Amino acid sequence: VIGAQGKRSSIDRKLNRGFFQNPQPFMGLKAHFRGSLPAGQNYLYTFPGGYCGMSEIENGLINVCLLVRQAVFQSASQPYPANVDSFIVWMKQQNPALGKWLSGAEQVSESWLSISQVPFVSKQVVVNDILMAGDSAGLIAPVAGDGMGMALQTGRMAADVLDLYLTDQISAAKMCKQYRRLWWRTFGLRLRLSRVLQVFMLRPNWLTPGLRMMNSVPALGRLLVTHTRDNQLVRP
Question: Are 96 and 189 within one domain?
């Protein structure tokens, strides 16, 4: 069985997975806009307790996603109850450049989509002989920007070892061991680096000197990009 239930689901509760038992401090928001964004470029904006990314998608639309600490989201609307609209107003005020872009763009989505309890923690890759794929195996910090690529890659990896088992080339135990080893060898460093990058994104007093260092040493930036994503084409 391949588990592809996403970041956090009722299946994880039934499997009694450790991360499900603990509250997670992050939430995410996403909406589509029509606006100006240079072709081939992605943008990242920071604000206290979170960051917002923009990238061009199909039909000339701009996908705007953000990650924020749940406590920051809840406090941004004070003294009123927490809600998305109040938070967006607050976020625009925290980063004038981001606020200017959002105010000048047309929101195409009827409303912002949201997800809470986003788990950036280590997970078991194999649970009860279930091979976890995509976000159910491990969630990369959005600043690294390769979650969809990882999902495709893990699905292919799981299918490959499952095929060996179904054709009687390896045992179930060997299948689980092989998948676990391959998964960590492929994604372990990537996940650790993405979490370090996210720490910098959430702390502006660290981010500024970090960016200056990468501007001074461009090879460092290229190294981070190389080691947080797969630069090879997915096999047909």
Answer: no
* Cα angle value 151/32/201 (rounded, 5°): 65
Query: Same structural domain for residues 125 and 114?
Result: no
Specify the 3-state DSSP secondary structure of 132.
strand
> 40 lies in which domain range?
25-118
Q: Which of 101, 118, 135 represents a domain boundary (last residue)?
A: 118
Residue 64 CA to residue 48 CA, distance in Å, equals: 17
Q: Where are the alpha helices (DSSP H) in the chain?
A: 10-14, 70-76, 84-94, 96-104, 147-166, 172-201, 204-216, 218-226
pTM: 0.81
Examine residue 20 and state whether it is found in any structural domain, yes or no. no
pLDDT digits over 16-28, tens only?
988 888 888 899 9
Shared domain check, 127 and 200: yes
Residue 152 placed within a domain: yes
Residue 117 has pLDDT above 70, yes or no: yes
The tokens 């809470």 sit on which residue?
A: 116
- Residue 109, classed as helix, strand or coil, is coil
* CB 35 within 8 Å of CB 191: no
Check residue 47 and report its DSSP letter: E
**Is position 198 within any domain?**
yes
Q: Which two tokens stand for residue 146?
A: 């390769």
**Count of CB atoms within 10 A of residue 2's CB?**
16
